[in-house]
Predict the 3D structure of the following.
Amino acid sequence: MKVLVTGGLGFIGSHTVVELQNKGFEVVIIDNLSNSSIEVLDGITTITGVKPHFEKIDLREKSEVVRFFETHKDIAGVIHFAASKAVGESVKEPLMYYENNINTLVYVLQELSKLEKQNFIFSSSCTVYGQADELPITENAPVKPAESPYGNTKQIGEEIIRDTCKINSQLKSIALRYFNPIGAHPSAEIGELPIGVPQNLVPYITQTAIGIREQLSVFGGDYDTPDGTCIRDYIHVVDLAKAHVVALERLMENKNLSNYEVFNLGTGKGSSVLEAIKSFDKVSGKKLKYQIVGRREGDVTAAYADTTKANDVLGWKTKLTLDDAMASAWKWEQKIRNK
Ligand code: UFG
């Protein structure tokens, strides 16, 4: 069965392509290479032994999207990752974010709606919850006004899909709300490739340990948490990738309870920034240099998932630990720097 993965050369996309191919799906990747590298295709091929079909297409070009779908009418499912994801950049360039994340989603849904099989998986984020009033966060927690244009694109994206599902009963969709994806494939053939100074914790940790950054700034030591640092639900990207395959199969096998469903994807366990550093030190045998500095604007104190719905309804559970994720991220960092 042919599956389209948009943004399939990106961090989560590439790991999902591997898991799809491991399960025998035929994968077609669309990526515009704006935040990814063509070499990722080789990494995927080395791991799975199968080179996925790749088309360099910019989904903002509507005519390209139309042409693509006309030549791939046999697509049985779409996993839509292609989007920009830097919170700070989105504040500076809101229109770019709305064009990249919203226009492209609309074009893909318009063309998908012409196909016989309309199974659609959407990359959403726990950012839709903001600072939730109750922890762990269930899917019923209210969606809070977005803190950034990036966050808003995820909320609007979900609304667009929900509204489209209401009038198109053939369209079946699942929005997956990720908590904090980290780590890399255990083979170190694929991983995260942040451009410039990393904004996220784990690439900053590994780049510091390898000597590219002088030290990690821990943003805030005075939060209302046991050690004063923020708490997040760090999920191994391989576990996360597997959830996409399970979700797609759920739609393909008509196991969905409605034609628009939402699931949290997390481990259910919250870890503080200092615990994440401790985990890194343990698996790397290093002592990470860090300093506690002021809070970062927009950070919530704590966010971790209630995984009951994902476990019981979707039938998926994380298997890998924070230590596994840190070890794989470190292996990946060493591999790309020794090249
Ligand atoms: N952190 C540091 N130092 C750094 C980078 C991060 O201390 O150099 C801390 C942050 O303050 C936070 C934690 O590490 O407490 C995790 O930060 P990340 O940037 O890795 O991830 P976020 O929790 O900010 O990201 C989440 C989601 C995104 C979403 C974002 C904003 O994963 O999709 O929240 O709501 F966009």
Summary: The mean pLDDT is 97. The two ends are 36 Å apart (CA to CA).
